Amino acid sequence: MFSKLKQLFLSESLLDEAFKTTLVMLEFDHQMYQASRTSLRETDAARPDIDVKETDVKVNKYEREVRRKVLTHLSVSGIQHLVPGLVLVSIVIDVERIGDYTKNISDLAGHHESKLSAGDYEGKLQEIEQYVGTHFKKTIAVLKTQDKDTAREVMSVEEVVGKSSDWIVNEMITNHGSAMASGDAVSLALYARYLKRINAHLTNIASAVVNPFPRIGFRDKKSEDAKNQQT
Amino acid sequence: MAENSSIPLPSEARYGPGNNVLLKVLAIVLFVYGFILSITLLGIGFKLFGTGLTSALFKATANPLVALAIGILGTVLVQSSSTTTSLIVGMVGAGTLPFGSAVPMVMGANVGTSITNTLVSLAHISRSDEFKRAFAGSTVHDFFNICSVIVLLPLQVKFNIVGASSHLVEAVFEGFGGLKFSSPLKLITKPVAEAIAGGLGDNGYLVVVAAIVLLLLSLRYLVKTMKSLVLSRIEQFFQRYVFRTPALGFILGIFVTVLVQSSSITTSVVVPLLGAGVLTLQQIYPYTLGANIGTTITAFLASFATGSVEAVAIAFAHLIFNCYGIIIFWPLKVIPITLAKRLSELTLKSKLIPAAYILVVFVIIPGAIIWLGT
Description:
The structure holds 2 protein chains of 2 kinds.
Chain A: H1 2-10, H2 14-41, H3 52-77, H4 82-111, H5 122-145, H6 148-156, H7 158-173, H8 182-210, H9 221-230
Helix pairs in contact in A: 2-3, 2-4, 2-5, 3-4, 4-8, 5-6, 5-7, 5-8, 6-8, 7-8
Chain B: H1 21-49, H2 51-61, H3 64-78, H4 81-93, H5 99-113, H6 115-121, H7 128-159, H8 161-175, H9 182-199, H10 204-242, H11 246-260, H12 263-269, H13 271-275, H14 281-294, H15 297-306, H16 309-329, H17 334-346, H18 352-373
């Protein structure tokens, strides 16, 4: 009993624990994304290698845990860590939303009978997938190391990914993708959209390392000022 | 607020800059010494008044309701039952306040201290559901104390139930040599206290004022330092133990309050968790009772500084009053919990009700009793 008490007394703070849980959630998101993407794009198998639904349930549970731990920490230990607490509560929402979108990709793989080929849009799609895959790794690293330069790299590409995704969707809408079967076109549009949203949430998380709290999810102020000057 | 956001790296959140543990421990030792010194000084100061003050206080507090009201109002003013009970112990130790009058005063101190977490709950007043939960959670402490007084004060007046029990326990404690270590305490404080009294020209008023100021300051900074040293390390206990069983919640309430030396802090930290719905009234009720027990330790510390049997007895009276209250109102927890819930439901009708409740219970009624009684 005493050793348990001692262990508890010397253990890390709840805020530390909440931060580590957030990292674990992001790792789960990455695993879900890789499994869902492989299932949709590289195999004819409807089911991914991991149970994405089950993992998403874990991610949702961890989100509640992070909120509870941050609240308890701020209540008990005072508001000296108010900003990191608010930041964590803010970005954990993005982490949970990424989980939802990877689940959507998994559902798409389940409904799309064979592996999804993008035809004329394959190059563009692979470019987006490349960015999203890299950004997962970079965002996890950025959270661990607080590396602002890497965070800015992730943030700088958001517009490119967004525009590429929108272009694919618009192509499907305006029937320029008429060479594709309707099921493939719909799947492609949805997939591109999900990738855009995943990338946007990864960018929001990275922005938490660069921006002050009120600007989380927005452009880095330097880039914003530079853009305003150009216009 | 920091200009740049930062997500804390592991252990940065706790061991941030300026968190010098050794310095804080030394400060705690200093403040404890200051506290014990203030009690010793208080004793000297009251003795300088002679018998005049004693008879005046005896007359003023002979009425147990008046004594109760003085305990409530005094504690509300200083926002600390530890300060009030330490003062009471010091006065009993100096022979200035009769034991019989001190018992209802100590009961009053218990009631008065529960105002603090009720005030903390007012921060949630703009969000109705949240406020309803927070207010209920904080007033359950008030209602436990009030119910205990309603039952135990008449029993104390009629049968001296608390007084007799505390003298019995004190006699056993003394028999085990419990008072022996008050001598070393006196050794390190009496010369300094006598020097201060001498420096103030052995003027009773000045010495008592100096003692009270020293008591307030040392307790205040003791609590502040203990809080900064301890609370962030015990938040894990809140996460893992408060929510489990009533017994664990009760033990945690005692443990945390003994460490931070303040039941106001212990009961206030859970108010935001109640408001957010993370904790329920049923969960924090035993924790609150534990806080009531934990806070009695300060009175014991003060009593050892006096070396007086009666002072130790009144410290035991504080503990025993709370124990009796728990024996009655833990099985009958439905009473204070229901009262707290009913009152909080009323707050949905008008936001003036919480303010009216606080004013009436903690200021107007005790004030009226004192005015009418004297």
